[in-house]
Queue: 3 jobs
Job 1
Amino acid sequence: MEPGNGTQISEFLLLGLSQALELQPLIFGLFLSMYLVTVLGNLFIILAVSSDSHLHTPMYFFLCNLSLVDICFTSTTIPKMLWNIQTQSKVITYEGCITQMYFYILFAMLDNIILTVMAYDRYVAICHPLHYMVIMNPQLCGLLVLVTWILSVLNSSLNSFMVLGLRFCSDLEIPHFFCELSQVVQIACSDTFPNNITMYFSAGLLGGGPFAGILYSYSKIIASICGIPSSQGKYKAFSTCASHLSVVSLFYGTSLGVYLSFSASQNSHSSAAASVMYTVVTPMLNPFIYSLRNNDIKRALQRFIGR
């Protein structure tokens, strides 16, 4: 294929997680199971919260949004990978690759910022409990979610638009199971400096910024909990943010592990395998973390399933 601009590219090859044919049925069954658990688990969280009027609070409103985003997040990558395994085809069209990349960036950033909004919610609940319902009113909650979507859409649109200007040569193999932004940029044969600057800037601003916000919120939360005189009061206050803290630790721990693995390893397939933790395992575990560590969610799920 002659070098050309992005619009002349017809298709890419996704190399997947393994080239071994004997492992394909195992990978298919494993990822299908994980995908179904992710979708059903997060869907149960949404339905349980929606059906229980006692859970119509800001914290569970944000949790429903997180569960919806997690469903969409995994749905941008796993179904296509399962289809490729089932059909023994690794092809993804140029349009499909750009679309998948756009939605992957969108939902990953939504996950990131919603976790930050939830940290702010916990900060207000613990540090300003008497003013919680006044501060976290429905208008503010709706505005926070709206701003989260706007920032995520702008970030995803900018990064995807930058890729459209790239030229690709004959080697169109992506050593991943989905069209990940940095992998697509790496196989371009034109100048990728503007793309790299955009990636690093957006990652620093919209990745590091929310993480700093979470750290600040929890520094205030810990200081406030330490000021509570009774141990029972400290435990009760900490228990209200334990689930969120677990999800945040899992989200940032796995995402950091992916990028450290990508930077340190010369084996692209190892990096692809590491990214499974970030793209599949974390969204799958979130419902379990909230249902196992949160008595309100447990009771709501029991009432919903018992209907």
Job 2
Amino acid sequence: MIHMSFCATLAFLLIKVFKVVEPVSMSREVYLSSVVPIGALYSLSLWLSNSAYIYLSVSFIQMLKALMPVAVYSIGVLFKKEGFKTDTMVNMLSISFGVAIAAYGEARFDTWGVILQLGAVAFEATRLVMIQILLTSKGITLNPITSLYYVAPCCFIFLLVPWIFVELPVLREISSFHFDFFIFGTNSLCAFALNLAVFLLVGKTSALTMNVAGVVKDWLLIAFSWSVIKDTVTPINLVGYGLAFLGVAYYNHSKLQALKAKEAQKKTTQADEEAGRLLEERESEGNDKKSESQS
């Protein structure tokens, strides 16, 4: 909730005051039908994923996050935004199998924590598919800054309501709790800097590059949690996550090949259209010269 209020404020300043990013015009109808459902899903994803840290280790949560491509693909097929392919489904099953092995080898396995994290993955995957369905179908393109400008205030409201009824009474009972402006401030700044980094990375490269970098980030987080905060990482954990990692890497590789093929086909089509246009121009010039000579 603090992240969302901080990000909403900074996004407002960057767009409306400093005019770093061009605003995107959006009607009230589009906002209510598109942004509000996405904001609700994002809030649920944030709530469940943050709650999972109470019950599970950082390393194990990163391993469970490897299921994200599986969830996105499955929900995409369900909503008919992705075509069902046998080889892709086999790849998804291999990722799921690897995560299952990692879960089997988890020393601090907690059923409720796993349910929370899987719920967060499901809501986040649904949010990504909803963005594709609701926003791209209306011809709206949002970068991370404009996304925060529209989505963050909505998320703040959705997170504020459960906070008032669930967490605020607990905080009132705990007299030792003091709001640390430095910790929450720097933490919020990191959250906003992450969105800026995503914006720059996707702008300079592609969303696929971000996904590949995300896999590297997961390995670094697992290493950090094992070496610094002394999370227990078992050999079975690593074997299972290694299998899931290979599945995710293959999935990203397949997407990259498909993207290259699509770009090559697009260039071929453009070249054919250009050649056809030049041929038509030459034929038109030849007909004009013939008409002049006859006259």
Job 3
Amino acid sequence: MEPGNHTNIPEFILLGLSEEAELQPLLFALFLSMYLVTFTGNLLIILAITTDSHLHTPMYFFLSNLSFADICFTSTTVPKMLLNIQMQNKVITYEDCITQMYFFVLFAALDNFLLTVMAYDRFVAICHPLHYMVIMNPKFCGLLLLASWVLSFVHSLLNALLVLRLSFCTDLEISHFFCELNQVIQLACSDTFLNVLVMYLASGLLCFIPLTGILFSYMKIVSSILKVSSAGGKYKAFSTCGSHLSVVSLFYGTALGVYLSSAAIENSRATAIASVMYTVATPMLNPFIYSLRNKDIKQALKGLVLIIIMNH
């Protein structure tokens, strides 16, 4: 393909995590098992919350939406990777690449906003317990969820539209297992200044502002908990937000680690391997964190299992 304005690119090449043939069956088995655990674990969380009336509260409402977002987040990348390994074909069409990139950015941003909303929910529950049901009423919770979806949609659509204006030339190999926004932009042979500017500015704002909100919420939460006189009260307060804090640490810690390391390390293959942590491992671990650290979820899951057994 000659350099020039080639907007309708037929295909990209996803190089994946490794090009060694003997590692492909291992990678397939590993990622298939991780995907199945992620899908099943998050689906069980959704079903448990839906079927147990005791969990029809704002905290679990947002948790069920986080589980849904995690299923979608992982489903944008892993199935295509598994298909490529199985078919021994690394090709992804231009249209599929843009679509995958759009939904990946969408659900990554949605995860980000939902974790922020959940931090605010814990802040209100612990710092303003008497006004909790008034503040976190169903209408307000619905508005928070809608705002999370709208902001994620706008952010993802903006980046996708800016990529569509780019021209691509000869080097169409992506050193990743999915169409990662930054790497797609780097393949363009037209001017990418606006793309890079918007990508870093929007991503920076969408990471900095929510993370600041989360940290502020937990500073207030810790301050309120320390004022509680009884040890039992402190434990109960910490236990209600311990799961969420663990998930926040895992999501932001791995995501920031990948992007900070990618800025320092030129090896994009190493960055791709590191990105597995927040794209696949974090959504897989979230259900375990919530089910192991939360008695209400444990009881709901036991009830769900009993219902399934009785129906069979």
